[in-house]
Amino acid sequence: MNASGGTGGSGPSDDEWDRFLKESVEGTANAPREPSARSRIVARRLREEPEPPAPWRAHAPARPKPKKKRWLAVALVVALGLFVVALLSGRVADWFGSDGTGGQPLAMESERPTGAPPREAAARPTREEPFRGSPAARWGSGTAGITMPAAKATGWMNQTQVQQALHQTRDFLAASNLDPAVLRGERPTRAIALVNPHQKDVQDFLSTSFAAPDDENDPLLLFSRFDGRARLVGDDVRTRGRISYAAGKDGALRVTTDVTYVYPVTPASGGDEVTRTIVRREVVLDWNDPKKVITEPGTFSLVSYSLDMTNGGCGPTTGYLTPQFAAERSIEQGSGPEVDPYDRSTSIPERTRNSRDEECATATRS
Fold first, then answer.
1. Distance of alpha carbon 74 from the chain centroid
2. Left if phi > 0, otherwise alpha if psi is -120 to 50, otherwise beta: which for 100?
3. Span 324-333, pLDDT tens digits
4. Residue 230's beta-bridge partner residues?
5. Does residue 99 sit within a domain?
6. What DSSP state is assigned to residue 263?
7. Domain membership flag for residue 192
8. Mean pLDDT for the chain overall
9. Is 122 within a domain?
10. Distance between CA 315 and CA 267 in Å, rounded?
């Protein structure tokens, strides 16, 4: 439904938008209210457990050369095989794109998976192959790994407005977790500009988290930032996740995002070691109806945000991801349960429901 209560149609005019914003400032009887982020969840910080290198080899036996008298029959068989593959291309993609045995890029994630991805052959990452030995080797790069749903009129927005809101939501994810400057530790200015400036509790959180980060006010809850000790290997960050939406409170467009980011890093001081930091985020946000909530055009209100990270730091809060390298890694295991950071089959709150904030779980792979 759009602002006037019908399906489809156009959104509020510029005059209507200005009138509602003016009323909210002047405090009329029907003034929109200020939004508030209802919950924040700080999930487990996982300590990476490195997997030892394992020898591996691949052998492809030579194909026997067909006898000349059979060349026609072989050609016919090959042609028939290609025809069948063309007809069943979708099923072939499923065979080789979902069970971890084909080495092909995975199909986009359309719904929550039913289990963890299969294990890859044990192999250490290198600068040339930073995702070697990881399920992320078959994931998309950057925003290409984030599934975008088709847009349709929902809540107070028509189809065009919903499509724009979804793209701006993806822009926020990119500006928060993929922007090279932000990953180097700079302030995520572009991402913050998309957050409703009238959402006081979130604005207070943002101000405090960058000035004096602590467990409750940590910029890592929303943004991926590395300290000066780690440097990304190249500019390829692998992602897997999806964006979905539905009508929310007061006719808002409620957008839910669930994305895992895999960052290959190496010591800034030099050396060939490559390790990975894995960050999963669930962020829920509302694109509010300006008749009901005080907002600004092109901004959303945060509803909740949760974080799960592996090899991002398991000590005092610094506001930065602090991966451990071999020379720094403790031999002690985490005090919490073992966790697979690539398992996206349960939500972060469900996965960490019985854990304590002070626990550092042990990641079963990186």
1. 47
2. left
3. 998 776 544 4
4. 267
5. no
6. E
7. yes
8. 80
9. no
10. 19
